[in-house]
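Write out the 3D structure for:
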Amino acid sequence: MAEENKQEQPVVPSQYNLDAKWDACLDLGLRRFTYFSLIGGFAGLLLFRSPMTRWASTAFGAGTGIGSAYTECSQKFGGYPGKSTASISETPITKAGED
């Protein structure tokens, strides 16, 4: 009777594992957003005079940080397909007059 109860229980993925992935991704996203924003702001102070270009540099750093965090989190959840494998022809391309 004890063996029958063990076989009837469905196998469910661990909710703890999924929560840990979400926590890690949120932490990674916030850290990269902050660090890359600071790096972009510091680079803007060094390289640009106009306040608008300094803010643009900060925004570019923030976007880069969010994008890199998104890419890494997608890999953790298995949704990132990786590099595409495009087939390249080995035959050379000739111009019309070179026959």
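The mean pLDDT is 80.
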